[in-house]
Design brief:
single chain; alpha/beta; Spore Coat Polysaccharide Biosynthesis Protein SpsA, Chain A; 9-stranded mixed beta sheet; two-stranded antiparallel sheet
Length: 278
């Protein structure tokens, strides 16, 4: 079983300024629920009940969200509004939450390395809350856990993107192993379309084996002077095995304004069609 899931949430969210000047981008609401809650829900449904956050300055709202709010709860006790807290209360009762701080923004690889103190020596999930994913039949992390049970190696979630968009993503090169599953030969961070080995892009879902920390501890800075998780995974791919899984479902890139609006519209329409407002 994979019990822990790491959420790197220390980024500044500059694309959403001024909204994110004092509020974490992960707390931006998709209709009436913050992005981070969607991610934690997905992790919980995949069996990952120990939730670890790598935070930064001005991220206190995330800790407060997964905690009791006594004055508010007392005020709405017994009213219709209390129903709106049912889901977050279930998450709080089911999961445990721990936090550590990334002192400097030195890349996703550095954020994951910072989380070692919370993860320890065991495989773990990683969710980037910017990527709001909906699985077709199962949540995306659940799909990846099923793959891990068979292969016991690091796995990255991937999806096809337009060739002209490869410069926005880490891109894999690899061979098909099964339907939707690729053995990764290499990963390239944000290549130009003319240099991309494929159009299979890494999205914000990972399952990582604990030896990734040993790689990250000695990894030199890569692109943009940052510690890149793709560089660490390249080393794992050469020494062991890394898989790319083309998940069944849909991703909203909520790190972009267009994706955020698309996700908001989708969930608003889904709430309306459910007939119960939730």
């Amino acid at each position: 079983m994979i019990n822990k899931c790491l959420f790197p949430v220390a980024g500044y969210g500059t694309r959403f300024l001024p909204s994110t000047k004092a509020m974490p981008k992960e707390m931006l609401p998709i209709v009436n629920k913050p992005l981070i809650q969607y991610g934690v829900q997905e992790a919980m449904e995949a069996g990952m009940r120990q939730i670890a956050f790598v935070t930064g300055r001005s991220k206190r709202a995330i800790e407060d969200h997964f905690d009791r709010t006594y004055e508010l709860e007392d005020q709405i006790s017994g009213t219709k509004a209390e129903h709106n807290l049912a889901e977050i209360r279930h998450l709080m009762q089911t999961c445990t939450f721990s936090y550590t701080r990334q002192v400097q923004m030195k890349g996703l690889g550095d954020a994951i390395r910072t989380g070692e103190t919370l993860i320890g020596n065991q495989p773990f999930g990683v969710v980037l809350a910017d990527d709001l994913c909906l699985g077709d039949d199962q949540p995306v992390l659940t799909q990846m856990v099923n793959i891990y049970r068979k292969y016991q190696c690091s796995i990255v979630g991937i999806e096809e993107v337009a060739h002209e968009d490869t410069e926005k993503y880490g891109i894999i090169a690899g061979k098909a192993l099964e339907e939707r599953l690729f053995m990764v030969d290499a990963m390239v961070e944000k290549p130009a379309a003319s240099e991309a080995p494929s159009n299979l892009a890494i999205i914000g879902r990972y399952i990582l084996t604990p030896d990734i920390f040993e790689v990250l501890r000695t990894l030199p800075p890569g692109r943009n002077g940052e510690i890149q998780i793709t560089d660490a995974l390249n080393i794992q791919a050469k020494n062991k095995m890394v898989l790319g899984y083309q998940f069944k479902g849909h991703r909203f890139d909520c790190g972009s304004l267009d994706g955020f609006v698309a996700a908001t519209n989708y969930f608003f329409q889904r709430m309306g069609s459910s007939g119960n407002g939730g």
